[in-house]
User: Fold this.
Amino acid sequence: MTFKAAAIQMCSGVDPARNAQTMARLVRNAVAQGAVYVQTPEMTGALQRDRAAMRAALRDEANDLIVAEAASLAADLGIHLHVGSTAIGLEDGKIANRGFLFGPDGRKICHYDKIHMFDVDLDNGESWRESAAYTPGNAARLVDLPFGTLGFAICYDVRFPELFRTQAMAGAQIMSIPAAFTRQTGEAHWEILLRARAIENGMFVIAAAQAGIHEDGRETFGHSMIIDPWGRVLASAGGTGEGIVLADIDVSAVAAARGKIPNLKNGRPFSLEDRPHSTPGGVAA
Assistant:
């Protein structure tokens, strides 16, 4: 089955209401161009480094502005709308980096909480401790949609291939990887990681990204992409500002790619043997 997918590129600011308006405008534009599945980036609702301000604006899922707007949009447009993620307040006072998928009736199909926390120190002096604010998820998700089986990841998850292999082995044909990659890491690794995940699992990858210099001072890489199971980039956005990336996805290409390179079938269990220890004379013991 062939369907048109869209990846929405945004430069989210600190005001969720303004970001919701931007999301709605871009989603409507994508649907006007034929998209029936639309994905928005990680942290669609707001990119806010000020922890106190972020917590002040935080809402639980039932009262979140982005969630409500997305559900309404999906129903109004009759599409599958995937909010890549937004910050959601949890009952224990912590925060989830949570993605949402809504169906054409406006109902939530499922959510996915980002599993891997971006705790890094970069060469340019940037330091991030996502685990200081967010509670990591502990469950992968698969959803059977009319046009194929969709798996979920968010941003830093892309560096953990076991997450993708597990979902591919369980039947995922399309992986969603919404993100807010930093410019430094994006320039080095974004495209190659996306293409690697597509190639090694024989699946489509849809990756909506944040792009540009944000109100909170951070800079994200952009280059939202849709990639086929052979690793070909079907469509890509630029590195700054908002945009819409569209591609026709023929899910039969998944079976074709996996038939040519059947590595999912050819994998074998193995053990890791103890390393031999060298003796002082240089002979292995």
Q: What stands out?
A: Residues 51 and 263 are 44 Å apart (CA to CA). The chain has a mean pLDDT of 93. The chain is about 25% helix and 25% strand. The chain has one domain: 2-261.
